[in-house]
Design a protein that fits this description.
252 residues; single chain; three-stranded antiparallel β-sheet; 10 helices; 51% helix; Arc Repressor Mutant, subunit A; three-stranded mixed β-sheet
Length: 252
């Protein structure tokens, strides 16, 4: 039987350490088109996907029926019925779900999604950024994470699949250069709490950067830069006037 469901585990390593362990679930398009959902049943399929979302790298899922009820919006009694039905469902001649009860006094369920489940572990390591090399999505996310950790002394709750997609599709090319993008990230993180934080959004996110925060931070940063230039000009002018006054004083 071809892969029915597959789970990909990604461990992201950077100079900051192992910053994230992400997982994504893939469902075979061929299986869906071949009648998988019809065979399993829509409600049962939803519960199956919820179980798969808790798969560990050992290929087993550890979660309670209470958690399944919470994830799917159904009662515990309904979940109990659906799980028992799933244990009997076959696809292409093979059972799609098995369960092992572990423990002595209080039994816990451990699920395995048949032979169809294939798990993969991928390690992604930070590559050094070579000067002059165009930024990629991963480098943008890592730069944001470093700025975030330095400012808030906390690890950014990154979701690599989502955040790299945002960086690639909405941040890269948003400003006139890669250098400007990195400066905007630094400015937004550094000044977020004093300028834009609120009760609902106390800390910045990469998603915010791709919309209002990036644009706003760029505007404020540009104004600050203009003010700094004007200040430098005033200082230089003052120095020149001071030197002129000193020169005239020689003739007094």
């Amino acid at each position: 039987m071809a892969e029915l469901l597959s789970v990909n585990f990604t461990h992201q390593y950077t100079s900051m350490g192992d910053v994230n362990k992400d997982a994504t679930v893939s469902i075979s398009l061929e299986a869906i088109q071949d009648g998988l959902i019809k065979t399993v049943g829509a409600n049962r399929f939803a519960v199956l996907v919820a179980i798969v979302s808790y798969i560990h790298t050992d290929g087993k899922a550890y979660l309670s029926q209470r958690k399944l009820a919470e994830l799917t919006g159904q009662s515990i009694n309904t979940i109990t019925k659906i799980v028992n039905e799933l244990l009997e469902v076959e696809y292409q001649g093979k059972k799609i779900l098995s369960r092992e009860l572990i423990g002595t006094t209080r039994k816990k369920s451990v699920y395995t999604v048949g032979d169809a489940l294939v798990t993969h572990t991928t390690e992604v390591k930070e590559e050094p950024v070579v000067e002059g090399t165009p930024l990629d999505a991963q480098a943008v996310v890592i730069h944001f994470m470093k700025a975030y950790q330095q400012k808030f002394n906390a690890e950014y709750p990154v979701n690599w699949s989502r955040d790299k997609g945002i960086a690639k599709n909405k941040l890269l090319g948003k400003f006139d250069s890669d250098e400007t993008l990195l400066k905007v990230i630094d400015y937004a993180v550094e000044h977020y709490q004093e300028k834009w934080a609120n009760e609902k959004y106390p800390l910045p996110t990469i998603s915010m950067l791709s919309s209002w925060l990036g644009n706003t931070a760029y505007t404020f940063m540009s104004k600050d830069q203009q003010e700094s230039l004007k200040k430098v000009e005033r200082i230089e002018t003052a120095k020149e006037l001071d030197q002129t006054d000193k020169a005239f004083s020689l003739f007094d």
